[in-house]
Write a structure and sequence with these properties.
Layout: H1 6-13, H2 17-33
């Protein structure tokens, strides 16, 4: 993915949060008016199907060495 240009970062920083919220609300309303539906995804579900490849086991944390 390309790194955003400095000017686009500065342009986004200049838009207040309230303006972002208004833009998102307008786009959401247009999406719903056009027949779009919003799905609620259960917590813990990523939406990705299981990716191929071998499963790598997670190693248990190492114990501290005992000194006597």
């Amino acid at each position: 993915m390309a790194k955003p240009s400095r000017s686009s970062i500065q342009a986004n920083a200049a838009v207040p949060t309230a303006e972002h919220q208004r833009i998102i609300a307008e786009k959401t309303a247009a999406f719903l008016a056009g027949g779009g539906e919003i799905q609620q995804i259960p917590k813990g579900v990523s939406g990705y199907s299981k990716l191929g490849g071998p499963q790598v086991p997670v190693a248990a944390p190492a114990r501290a060495a005992r000194t006597t």
